[in-house]
Amino acid sequence: MRYRIGILKGDDIGLEIVPVTVKVLETAFKKFPDISIEWNELPIGMPAYEKSGETLPQVTLETLEHLDSWILGPIGHMAYPKDDPKALNPHPILRRKFDLMSNIRPTKSYRSIRSLHQNVDIVIIRENNEGFQPDRNMFKGRAEFMPTPDMALSMRVITRKNSEFVARTAFELSLQRNGKRKVTAIHKNTVFKIGCGLFLDCCKDIAKSYPDVEFEDRVVDTFAMNLVMQPQDFDVVVTSNMFGDILTDEAAGLVGGLGMAPGLCVGPDYSMAQATHGSAPDIAGKNIANPYAMIMSGQMMASWLGEKKRDDSMVAAAKLIQTAVESVIEKLETVTPDLGGNSSTEQMGEAVCREIESRA
Ligand code: NAD
Fold first, then answer.
1. Thinking of the domain 116-254, which architecture would CATH place it in?
2. How are the residues of the chain apportioned to helix, strand and coil, as percentages rounded to the nearest 5?
3. Which residue of 9, 75, 279 sits with most ligand 1 atoms within 8 Å of its CB, as the best mutation to test the pocket?
4. Which atom of ligand 1 is nearest to the CA of 74?
5. What proportion of the chain, given as a percentage, has pLDDT over 90?
6. What is the pLDDT of residue 360?
7. Mutation test of ligand 1: which of 77, 100, 277, 296 has the most ligand atoms closer than 8 Å to its C-beta?
8. Please, where are the H alpha helices in the chain?
9. pLDDT digits (tens, 9 = 90+) for 58-70
10. What is the pLDDT of residue 256?
């Protein structure tokens, strides 16, 4: 099977963790002679802006349409020039253009890593393109404005289409994971009776098609506490954009921090591997960023491609990457400083490659 995959390095630590991720994927794919990859490196972010005056060049947008999937490194948009309309934040544009409605973000604890809890294995599905995020929930204009200098209004969008899509993603994932087979929908319908009401109704409707999966719902404030106190109670969690944005960082904090938080943005046709964390300018250029989140985002992409194209080799390659990464994490010999080690980003990536090569 032949795949066309994009490489978009992003900014700051993206320039370090994305090449390491590509190397890990290449090492795994080489073990399966029937997998053939055409890699397409495309300009994005500040390096693209410095070259062409645009953070999201047209050539990137046009090429992505012809790819199966791509890896997007973290974007450091807070540092982009504020007064230039060509210095756009690329990732909300990509998430909308390619209808990447579900952002799948796993949180897993490892015995070797100091964390607030053990035996945590949760996936949070965050709706990606609506909610309170004013940079993506309007066709034209922005859903945040100031009628007077002393009043700000932000509007929230919830649709049946996106809510049903994320709910379906959650139930399908719960079946695939073979774990607790439980989906928890998070909302605040006590206050947002219409918006959260619609979101929850959609989740309940989709739940009817999955009688083998337990379904429950919780109010977001209670869930935020439950997540800190008893994260082992949950399997797959589904929620709207802003709640998911906050809860996924909270979940990452339970198991070792943002370097341990991968993600995959998924729509009906495309997927985009994108870690939860940002571009970490404070550690950029030092070769100490933890590549786990980016590598595991690439692993999720491989798994999604394998399932979509019914390609057993790609599914096996994804499993191989997961086993190799987990082995490096469990041994804790070659890990970056945030995990208590003294290895570089590259050294940790090389350790994963060695684990892959050593396996049949
Ligand atoms: P951040 O996630 O970049 O960093 C927060 C903290 O976590 C920092 O101390 C950083 O060093 C650490 N960290 C993050 N990733 C790490 C890794 N892989 N290994 C080790 N430590 C890691 O958040 P921020 O500092 O608030 O934002 C920096 C830039 O990233 C901003 O421009 C922000 O807008 C952007 N951002 C982008 C995304 C994205 O692309 N998805 C997400 C969040 C923030």
1. 3-Layer(aba) Sandwich (3.40)
2. 45, 20, 40
3. 279
4. 40
5. 95
6. 77
7. 277
8. 14-30, 45-52, 58-64, 90-97, 160-177, 195-207, 220-229, 241-254, 292-308, 312-331, 345-357
9. 999 999 999 999 9
10. 87
Residue 6 contacts by C-beta under 8 Å, 6 or more apart in sequence? 39, 40, 41, 42, 63, 64, 67, 69, 70, 71
pLDDT given at position 228? 96
> Which residue has the CA at smallest separation from atom 12 of ligand 1?
280
Atom from ligand 1 closest to the CA of residue 289: 19
Fold equal for 1-105+258-360 and 116-254: yes
- Distance (angstroms) between ligand 1 centre and the Cα of 301 equals 21
Q: How far is the CA of 280 from the centre of ligand 1 (A)?
A: 4
Q: How far is the CA of 113 from the centre of ligand 1 (A)?
A: 20
Tell me the CA–centroid distance for residue 144 and ligand 1, in Å.
24
pTM beyond cutoff 0.85: yes
Ligand 1 pocket check for 91: Cβ under 6 Å: yes
> Domain segments of the chain: what residues?
1-105+258-360, 116-254
Give the chain's residues under pLDDT 50: none
Task: Quick: pLDDT tens for 38-63.
Answer: 999 999 999 999 999 999 999 999 99
pLDDT at 105: 98
**CATH among 3.30.300.230, 3.40.20.10, 3.40.718.10, 1.10.230.10 for 1-105+258-360:** 3.40.718.10
Distance, in Å, from the CA atom of 86 to the CA atom of 213, rounded to the nearest integer, reads 46
